[in-house]
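Researcher: We're teaching a course module on how sequence relates to structure. For the next exercise, students receive a sequence and then see the predicted structure as C-alpha cells, so they can try to spot secondary structure elements on their own. Here is the exercise chain.
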Amino acid sequence: MTPRERMTTALSGGVPDRVPVFLRDLTLGLDVTGLSTPEVCAGAFDAEMSARSVIAAQRELGHDAVVGSIQYCGMEVEMLGGQVMFPPRGIPSVLRAPLDSPEKVEDAELPDPRRDAPLSNMVRSYRLVSERIGREVAVLGNVEGPLTKAGILRGLDVLALDMVSEPDVFQKAVRFSNDLTDDLCVAMCEAGVNTAMFVAAATDNPDILGSEAFAQHTLPGLRRLVDTVRKEGLPTVFHPHGLFSNGDNAGLVDASLDTGIAGFQFAEGNDLAAAKQRWGARTCILGGVNAFTTLLLGPPESIRRETARCLNSCMEGGGYVLMCSCSLHRGMPLDHVREMVGTCASLGRYGATPPAGGSGPPSGGRKAGWALCPTCGHRYRLVNGRGLACLGCPSAVNGCDMTRCPRCDAEAPIGRTASERLSALLRGYRSQYGRASFR
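Model: And here is the predicted structure for the students to work with:
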C-alpha cells in the first residue's frame, strides 16, 4: 500500500497493511530544512520554501500523511489588521487580535484565499506539495474549529466576555470565522488536498467555554464544514481539546459524529482504549503519544513503550491512525519523532484482514500469535504481552509458560513452543542493543 492508500483505508474504518502515521507537523519541517521562521512565514508567506519544508520532513521522518503547508494559528491575522510575532527559530504567535473592537467585527471583510496573501500563498503550497508527492502521500488540509478561529481573531478572553455580555458581537465573530474557514476549505481542496480536511479545535473545548457553547456554536459550524468538504469529495476529521473518552463530555463525541465526521482525534489525557471500545465501530479513532511529555522529553524507551500501548489499545480491527496528542512544531526533537514513526512501522502491521463482520484479530488464536485475556477479554499479540507487560521479568527470557495482558496485567498460560520462541526472540532483540536479557 502507498501511504495515501493506507491513510484513506484507515479513515474509512478499514484495515490497511499497517497503522498509518499522521504527524500534523505544522512548523516542524522548518527544523529539517534549517530555514528561519520569518523567511518562510512573515509577510506574504513563501509557498516554495513552505512546500520544500513539508516534503523534506516527510522524506526524513517517513510519515504517511502531511499537512500541505507550513502553518500556524492566525495566518490571516495580519491581513485583517492584527499583529503577529515571528521569532527566528520559534513558532509565530498573535500579538494583537485583528477584530479587537466591536466596530472591527462589524466592518470585517472576508479575504479571498485564492488571491489575497498570505492565505493565497499557503494555498499555493498545498498545490506544490500535492503535485510533487501527492500521488503517493496523503495530503490533508488543516483549518481551525469555529470557536478556535473566532478566539484567534477576536481574542479568546474577549470572545468569552462577548458570549455573556455582547451576544450579537459574539455571533457575528463566529459567523465571520465560519465563512472564512469555509472559503479556505474549498480553496485547499481545489489546490490539492487529496485525503481529508482536519479541523483543529483547541479552544472548542467544553472545559473552557462550556458544553452549551460547544453544542450551540461548535457543532453547527462543524456540520457546515463537513457538508462543504463532502461536496469536494472528501471526509473531515475533528480534533477538539478536552476530556471526551468518559465523563460528562462523552455525549459530545456522539453529537460530533452526528455531524458526519469520518474521524475524531483525542487529545492528551483521554483513554484511547475506552474511546476505541465505545466509538471504534462508528468512526476512525486518531490519537496517540503525548506530545507535551513523552514525545518532547523522551527517552526513546518511553516513546516506544507509549507508542506500543496506543497501538495495542486501538489498532485491532483497523480504523485507527497513530498521531501525537496535538500538532508538532519546530523544537520537537526529530530523533524522538523518528522513534515513534519507526515503532509504528514495526509494531503496527496487520497480520491479516479480520474476518468479515468482525473486529477481532486474525483467526487462529495462540497458534497465530494472539492471546485472549481471561480477566478483561482483551485480545492481544503475544509479542506485546511478553515484550511489554512482562518487560523486566527474568522469567520472560527463560521459557516462562505465562504471558501478561498489556491492558489489565492479568496472567494467562501459553504453550511451551510459543514460550520458547518468545523467550529466544526477546533475548536476541536485547542483544542487538547490547543490553542484558532482563533488567
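Model: If you want an answer key for the exercise: Residues 167-191 form the longest helix (25 residues). The chain has a mean pLDDT of 89.
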